[in-house]
Write a structure and sequence with these properties.
It is a single chain. The strands form two sheets. Strands 1-8-7-6-5-2 form a six-stranded antiparallel beta sheet. A two-stranded antiparallel sheet has the order 3-4. Helix 3 runs antiparallel to helix 5. It has helices spanning 12-17, 30-37, 53-63, 130-133, 158-179, and strands spanning 25-26, 43-46, 49-50, 71-72, 74-79, 82-93, 98-106, 111-119. The chain is an alpha+beta fold and 180 residues long. Strand 6 (82-93) and strand 7 (98-106) form a beta hairpin. The radius of gyration is 20 Å and the shape is globular. The protein contains five helices and eight strands, in the order αβαββαβββββαα.
């Protein structure tokens, strides 16, 4: 009986085609992200946004990306029965897998924060860095939000950075056409 590991006995093509392991990290639950981004909130009222064709085209034109789903999960944030802002849950494609993130908008539509809830890629997880995410704070509809110009890129996480930037730009457009 040989002590040779069985994977060494496989043809090289089988070993090279084996899928790379995916790494899924859940940083926050939906509820934890809501409380983190709006600690003063007394309620989160689910108000999913369903865009009509005109709104959809306006969002896609501004964001420069296609909408994958006609409905966006959105919660109106209430503090003492008064509107305090919006909490938007979204997913973008990283390189191979989805990135689940949330954007907090204040009552005037400015970005209050961006949080990564779940990251499933094997590389590029640096986008969870608070300094990188802080670049979005205060951005509004109409801000250029371009990678390498307004938002710094992270080497090794280019696609994740690019897609989150596009997603935030899309969310700002959704605010403009449907929530404002």
């Amino acid at each position: 009986m040989s002590n040779t590991p069985t994977w060494l006995l496989l043809p090289a093509s089988v070993v090279l085609l084996a899928p790379a392991p995916a790494l899924a990290v859940q940083y926050l639950t939906l509820e934890a992200a809501q409380k983190l981004m709006f600690p003063e909130a007394s309620a989160f009222v689910s108000q999913p946004v369903r865009l009509d064709d005109v709104q959809k085209k306006a969002v896609e034109r501004y964001a420069g990306v296609r909408l994958r789903f006609p409905e966006q999960p959105v919660w109106q944030v209430m503090t003492d029965s008064k509107p305090a802002g919006w909490f938007v849950l979204d997913e973008v494609y990283g390189k191979h897998e989805f990135i689940t993130y949330a954007v907090a908008l204040d009552a005037t539509g400015a970005v209050r924060g961006v949080e990564i809830l779940e990251y499933r890629e094997t590389h590029g997880g640096q986008i969870v860095d608070p300094k990188w995410r802080a670049q979005f704070t205060g951005k509004r509809y109409g801000a250029a939000l371009k990678l390498d110009e307004d938002i710094a890129n992270i080497s090794g996480a280019t696609l994740s950075c690019k897609h989150v930037v596009e997603g935030v730009r899309r969310i700002l457009a959704i605010y403009e056409v449907a929530l404002k």
